[in-house]
Design goal:
Length: about 200
């Protein structure tokens, strides 16, 4: 089974060339692979990352292409290209968190996870389209997702039976980025453990 991680620019050639069972360390420093490796889940990593602990302004225009690429990854995974039971999920951080949300609303991926996704509140009209398991990690002090937006996200997702939201009270954006300005080891471990269990359960 396959997790397409990072949710930024994963091209089709990389999907074809990926080796069964390979796990690469995310360039971003946000790594969920230890929690799922060895449990029949393979992490296929993207290779492009944004520097720092903030969403770069130019990546928003790339979302349609990235969404198409990740949908292709999911189709390949569920078609048995990577072995396992033919299931595929996504996990994304920051802008990738929004992409994982859009994968939940627009694709048939088996499960999806967002870490401190930005601008999700601008697409909450799609929340009712989520039918597969979706896990959302929110940093309560996220300067890129203000409190009002967080309330809207939580309210909208509370009406989605397959969605689960966890809020990390003392955390800022990118709290799971090892070595980052706002890295919180305890919160990152909690979030990553929850994510690993989520993927082990649904993939």
């Amino acid at each position: 089974d396959l997790v397409s991680a990072g949710a930024l620019q994963l091209d089709h050639e990389e999907v074809r060339e990926a080796e069964l069972g390979s796990v690469e360390e995310p360039a971003s420093g946000e790594d969920i692979s230890p929690g799922v490796d060895g449990h029949g889940v393979h992490v296929l990593e993207d290779v492009v990352d944004a520097p720092g602990d903030h969403p770069p302004p130019d990546l928003g225009t790339r979302l349609p292409r990235e969404l198409e690429d990740h949908a292709a990854v999911g189709a390949a995974g569920r078609g048995g290209s990577f072995g396992g039971r033919g299931r595929a999920g996504t996990v994304g951080f920051c802008l990738g968190g929004k992409l994982a949300y859009l994968m939940a609303t627009r694709s048939d991926a088996d499960c999806n996870t967002s870490y401190y996704g930005v601008a999700i509140d601008a697409a909450l009209n799609e929340a009712s389209a989520i039918t597969k398991p979706y896990l959302c990690h929110i940093a309560a002090k996220d300067k890129f997702v203000p409190g009002e937006a967080q309330v809207k996200i939580r309210e909208a997702l509370s009406r989605v039976p397959t969605a689960t939201v966890h809020v990390y009270a003392e955390c800022d954006h990118a709290f799971a980025r090892a070595g980052g300005q706002h890295y919180d080891a305890a919160a990152a471990k909690t979030a990553n453990d929850r994510t690993a269990e989520f993927f082990r359960k649904h993939l």
